[in-house]
Amino acid sequence: MSAHDRPSRDAIVATAQESIARGSKSFAAASRLFARPTRERAWLLYAWCRACDDIADGQDHGHNMTGVTDGPARLAEISAKTEQALAGVEVGDPAFDALRLFAAETALPAALARDLITGFALDAAGWRPQSEADLYQYCYHVAGAVGCMMALAMGVPRTDEATLDRACDLGLAFQLANIARDIAEDARAGRCYLPQDWLDDYGLTADTLLAPENRERLAQIGARLARLAESYEASARFGTPMLSFRSAWAVLAAADIYGAIARAIAALGPRAWDRRVSTSSAAKLGFIARAALAAGRRTTLYPPAPRDATLWTRPRVAAGAA
After folding, report:
1. What is the model's pTM?
2. Alpha-carbon distance 168 to 270, whole Å?
3. What's the DSSP call for residue 306?
4. Is pLDDT at 56 greater than 90 in this prediction?
5. 252/236 Cα distance (integer angstroms)
6. DSSP state, 241?
7. Residue 66, pLDDT score
8. Virtual torsion, Cα 295, 228, 284, 10, nearest 10 deg
9. Partner of 91 for a Cys bridge, out of 14, 42, 96, 263, CB 3.0 to 4.6 A?
């Protein structure tokens, strides 16, 4: 392909915008809170993450999963294209060329992108956590690393480990809320992201989670996940003074929206999985309005404070590697 025929940055960004519009209306709407440069980088990052997920699971923008029988080959494709993009080589695939642009514009540590791919490999292998530490490690790979990359999109320097820790915390909070919300859906698909230690504590097995007689104990696990999500969400908020107003606005709105999901699961108890817990459009608008006020007062609401030493901490090499 000649230089003249190569897609421009604008064309790749436009394709990334189409991807987020098809794959996640919530994220597409939330991205509008960012200033344009950050918004475009968020779209570029989303396009790559979405494509990796789709390739790994045999789906189209998160929909119409077909089932996968060639998992290793799919992971090899994801890794090869990602490495090309990280090396600055034109891939010829809009989603991976989106990563190429994102990496160049944010000085992305390659280890962060590779850490996300490790999450896909864990899922492909049917991995299940044995301990709470395993759960955090998984949440880091599939969401915490993305939180760090989003922080880079917002202009956080790759050397600002403290703020990247807070960004990782938000990713962990989101994933813990997702796991709590999707316990029943995952169980029906033969997946379980609850630590085996927890199941043992409550006298449950992955195969019997949905039995009616186990609902009360399952509700206790859901509440436990919600409490963990809340602790990481609270920690993440203290990173917002390092962001611009619009970036802090988006982060605080997202924290409120996902936090509401976790809190609803805890409040519903045994009824938490009767239907999929979600946040209404009206509630989202309320959270967005409230987040704008909080973003304006972020230095007062979230003054400098050491991060809670009891929280799980991401591997340092991920953000510092070339």
Report:
1. 0.92
2. 30
3. P
4. no
5. 9
6. G
7. 54
8. 70
9. 96
